[in-house]
Amino acid sequence: MKKYAKSHEWFDTESGYVGISGHAQEQLGDIVYVDLPTVGKEVKKGEMLASLESVKAAGDVYAPISCKVIAVNDKVSATPELVNQDAEGEGWLVKVEPTNPSEIDELLSEEEYKKMVEEA
Amino acid sequence: MWKIVKTTVGESEARMIEELLAAYSIPVIVQQTDLFVHPIFGSSAQCEVLVPEDRYEEAYNILQGEGSTVKYTPLYEDHVKLGAKIVEFAGYYMPLQYDGIVAEVERVRKEVGMFDVSHMGEFVCEGPDAVRFANYVVTNDFGSIDFGDIIYTAMCNENGGFVDDLLVYKIAPERIMFVVNASNIDKDFNHILKLSNGFDVKLTNVSDDTGLIAIQGPKTQEMLQPYTDLNLDEIGYYSFKEGSIFGVSGIISRTGYTGEDGFELYIPANQTTVAWRKLVEIGIKPTGLGARDVLRLEAGLLLYGNDMDDTITPLEASIPWAVKFEKGDFYGKEALLKQKEAGLKRKLRGITLETKLVPRHEMEVFKDGQKIGYVTSGTFSPTLGRPIAFVMIDANVKIGDTVQVLIRDKYVDAKIVKTPFYRGSVRSKK
After folding, report:
1. Can you name the residues that pair with A46 across neighbouring β-strands?
2. B39: chain A residues, CB-CB within 8 Å
3. How far is CA B184 from CA A51, B190, B209, B310, B330, in A?
4. Res B91: pLDDT
């Protein structure tokens, strides 16, 4: 199941994939560069996990939960526009293992996230 | 229990709202939401302003009253209908992008695209002293150009700093027009009005009555020619004629802000939609401010508020050709002359990078471990496939030198290069 952070990242509890939301992708515009962490890196919730550069803006991607990076998506490094085309699917950024699984409950459901975006 | 009453770009606006609501004794929480920053002013964070739920309606109504100062151009509804992403820019709701910045930039470079630039300010200056007065206001030599010609210039304060950069149109012996940046309309008008003391001129701010559409790209002329009574071939670079296009009368000038050939149409505000819709009909695609900013930066053109402001002189901004000391007296001359004689300490330069990390406004620039300046404007250039930027740095640094830009936590090598970064189909003055 996909869960969302207020800072616009998603975490899929089944696959362990983390990416940015479709809304975030839209806000950033044409993405030209994706800077991914190294496999094995451990971060706490809210720490910087990756960064993106679009033509007009830079976006830091924060860890939606405390986790360890177990894989990165090489496809988005080679073709950053994949994040624009399919932010919540093929455009995932990293695969992680939660190090404090209780934090997952604090994330927003898809419905709650949508509501937050609409209200903003 | 707390509810978001407003989302702002940058903390300063949020703080202003906080102060405003404090005057009504409404408690406020300001929180930074994320770092998906403003697409044009890269460095500011997004903020949420929250108020207690039971005071929400009151706060909302106060802000509606205050917030209505943001203006709309005559084309606002058309932008929304055409699917534009809208942002607030220089006090106006403007289209940021339609199909995506990269696609829009490419279209202007290869074919044609059009921009709503109705937010720009226009002042008409009439009277026996119009030309002499304009020549005193601006740094470039307005006296020497012909009627029907246009000059790009700075106008400075008494310290030589930019009040604005602008175009001045020489329409007739007793009639000229200033075209200024939207964000500076009030400041500029007051500045010019103040200087007019002792000159026989009448100044009128016609900004709200004037629509402005820029059509840019190598195919502009062939696209527009069938729909105007003017022979566009007879309008040279930085010249204009009065005529009609799609039956709408106005000024048509061969000017722009993209590095491509093209025209700008100054037409009555209430007929702007007529012209715009005809342009859409003949297949010219709208282009947003995001692409406009990329195009102007690739073409090495300055943006007020980023690359220069009240504290930077045209000499420092690397447009010394727009300051003509020999033309006679003009406002700010003394300070500029003094700076020229003393030598420049800092200078605007262009840089390019080999990586894909993008330098952004206000990032620091280093050489040999010493801070030598900052980035004024930066973007990824889709045309060149690499990042480009303007930097305001130590004047001793030369073209070909390598400097470092601190991009978040990395010192990234950048090379000082000549500008423009890219030269498109733009013509040159005969």
Report:
1. none
2. 29, 54, 56-57
3. 35, 10, 17, 11, 20
4. 84
Q: What is the pLDDT of residues B335-375, one digit of tens each?
A: 999 999 999 999 999 999 999 899 999 999 999 999 999 99
Q: Which of B34, B56, B109 would you mutate first to test chain A, the one with the most A CBs within 10 A?
A: B34
Helix (H) or strand (E) holding B11: helix B11-22
Averaged pLDDT for residues B307-326: 97
State the Cα–Cα distance between residues B6 and B28, nearest whole angstrom. 11
Which residues from chain B sit within 8 angstroms of residue A56, using beta carbons?
Answer: 39-40, 42, 101, 290, 293-294, 379
Q: Distance between CA atoms of B288 and B104, rounded to whole angstroms?
A: 8
State the nearest Cα–Cα gap between B376 and chain A, in angstroms: 14
Mean of the per-residue pLDDT values of chain B: 92
Q: Is the peptide bond before B226 cis (omega within 30 degrees of 0)?
A: no
Asked if residue B34 has pLDDT above 80, the reply is no
Q: Any CB–CB contact under 8 A between A29 and chain B?
A: yes
What residues of chain A, 55 to 114, have a C-beta less than 8 Å from chain B?
55-60, 84
Instruction: Give helix B11-22 / helix B56-67 axis angle, nearest 10°.
Output: 120
Give residue A17's pLDDT. Answer: 97
**Residues of B contacting chain A (CB within 8 angstroms):** 4, 7, 33-40, 42, 48, 85, 97, 100-102, 290, 293-294, 356-358, 360, 379-380, 382, 408
C-beta of residue B371 within 8 angstroms of C-beta of residue B365: yes
CA nearest to A59 within chain B: B36
Token pair 């085309």 is found at: A85
Contact, A91 vs A9, CB < 8 A? no
Query: What number is the ipTM of this complex?
Result: 0.80
